[in-house]
Design a protein that fits this description.
Blueprint: E1 15-17, E2 23-25, H1 26-30, E3 34-39, H2 46-62, E4 67-73, H3 77-87, E5 92-95, H4 100-105, E6 121-126, E7 130-136, H5 146-160, H6 169-177
Parallel strand pairs: 3-4, 4-5
Antiparallel strand pairs: 1-2, 3-6, 6-7
């Protein structure tokens, strides 16, 4: 559903304010890591709140595993902050209050006439904002579970960092001797 974006494409490097009003570029938040980018439906949605709460465990894993997470919501700063604190999230939330990202990617939800809701997407990005996988979760079951993301990131890191092995032969020997 992302307009003209699929695996191998570059995701646009949007600059949006975080929940405190500080502007960040997606590339700045990603750094040299992989990035799980959640384009949420909006603060008003109970499915959105539930999904963000489910990502808490995944964040604990990814924050020590060379992966970053960012949530973008089509809300003002107040509502973005409200969703972040109500779910207990510790990763960066960005406000797309002017609907710049939503408009450019053509992901506005057309069935909600009361909110400027986004069709929810979760985008797995390798370094330099390269699209690896896109989940479209208009209804709750289309959103990835922490375990699906675990598998995606494991496969991705094995592919893009094949020489990365936290347990080198030397480390394995030291571990076995202990």
């Amino acid at each position: 559903m992302l307009k003209n974006l699929g695996p191998g494409d570059l995701f646009p490097d949007f600059e949006l304010p975080d929940e405190n009003g500080v502007p960040y570029r997606l590339s700045e938040l990603q750094g040299d890591d992989v990035l799980v980018l959640m384009l949420g439906r909006g603060e008003h949605c109970p499915r959105e709140r539930q999904h963000q709460r489910e990502m808490l465990r995944f964040y604990e894993w990814s924050s020590v595993a060379f992966a970053q997470m960012v949530t973008v919501l089509p809300n003002d700063l107040h509502d973005v902050y409200k969703l972040k604190i109500s779910t207990g999230a510790h990763w960066t939330f960005l406000a797309d209050a002017d609907l710049e990202l939503q408009t450019e990617l053509d992901i506005r939800e057309y069935t909600d006439t009361h909110h400027a809701a986004t069709v929810p997407h979760t985008v797995v990005l390798s370094p330099d904002l390269v699209v690896e996988k896109v989940y479209v979760g208009y209804w709750f079951w289309g959103r990835p579970s922490p375990y699906q993301l675990w598998a995606d990131l494991g496969d991705l890191l094995a592919r893009i960092k094949p020489d990365f092995d936290p347990l080198t032969d030397e480390a394995r020997a030291a571990y076995a001797a202990a």
